[in-house]
Amino acid sequence: MDSKNQELLQPAEQNNAPRKSEVVIVEDNEVCERNMASSGAGRDERWILAGATALVTGRSKGIGRAIVEELVGFGSTVHTCARSEAELSRCQEELTAKGLAVSFSVCDVSVRTDREELVSRVRELFGGKLNILVNNAGLTLSKLTLETTTSDYTQQIVANFESCFHLSQLLHPLLKAFERGSIINISSISSYLAYPYLAVYSAAKGAMNQFSKALASDWAGDNIRINCVAPGLTRTPLLEEHPTPSVKET
């Protein structure tokens, strides 16, 4: 493992020497400090990821956008994607105004060819290496089981589970090449607790949970860590689209 990779994920106080990154968006500690300050915390309160590269899916709003801002604040060079070019452009402008540099692609993770094109873009951007993959993009269709069509079922399974599986598979060579790869899968509390209207979504996120456990064992020998995070109800634009008044009021 080279010295640059050994420095990743170290406490800030142990990793404060200036450095150059292979990707030039985050070049040195001055840039890291400015990005951290824009995220609301000082160097002594944070970990830094200077030199790390990251791909975050589904970043134009909500949890995905917050993840992108945090990773850039920690010093990572981030590429991200979402389905809407207009929303990505708007988000790009807002992040640029904060001094946060992020590259992006339009990608529908439920489309196989889009996923393949995204991986090709990431490979080109980051020189064939990737440190962090955040599988955040997903889809919620809130319907009672008897009202759920075959199309509804397929859309949710593909967007919430198949995309996670396929992107992890496609990006394995890049994560392995970095020698300290990390995958973070964004699941949901509904994978553990039962809610009405969310049977298929809950099943897809439950599959993600078990896939994460199996993959952690499968790829441990490649020095790739896999973690799964299951947020509870979070005030995001997605929550506003939920049709159940009791959920909105919680």
Structure characterization notes:
This protein is of the alpha/beta class and 250 residues long. The protein has one domain (18-249): NAD(P)-binding Rossmann-like Domain (Rossmann fold, 3-Layer(aba) Sandwich). It is 45% helix and 13% strand. The protein has nine helices and six strands; from the N terminus they run ααβαβαβαβαβαβαα. It has helices at 3-7, 29-38, 62-73, 85-97, 112-125, 150-178, 199-218, 237-240, 245-249; strands at residues 53-57, 77-82, 102-106, 132-135, 181-186, 224-229. The chain has a six-stranded parallel beta sheet with strand order 3-2-1-4-5-6, sandwiched between helices. Helix 4 (85-97) links the parallel strand 2 and strand 3.
Which helices and strands appear, and what pairs or packs with what?
Layout: H1 3-7, H2 29-38, E1 53-57, H3 62-73, E2 77-82, H4 85-97, E3 102-106, H5 112-125, E4 132-135, H6 150-178, E5 181-186, H7 199-218, E6 224-229, H8 237-240, H9 245-249
Parallel strand pairs: 1-2, 1-4, 2-3, 4-5, 5-6
Helix pairs in contact: 5-6, 6-7
CATH class: Alpha Beta
Q: Can you tell me the CATH topology?
A: Rossmann fold
Order of helices and strands: HHEHEHEHEHEHEHH
Enumerate the strands of the largest sheet in spatial order, edge to edge or round the barrel: 3-2-1-4-5-6
CATH H-level superfamily title: NAD(P)-binding Rossmann-like Domain
Q: Beta-strand level of the residues, as a percent range?
A: 5-15%
Question: In the CATH hierarchy, what is the architecture at level 2?
Answer: 3-Layer(aba) Sandwich
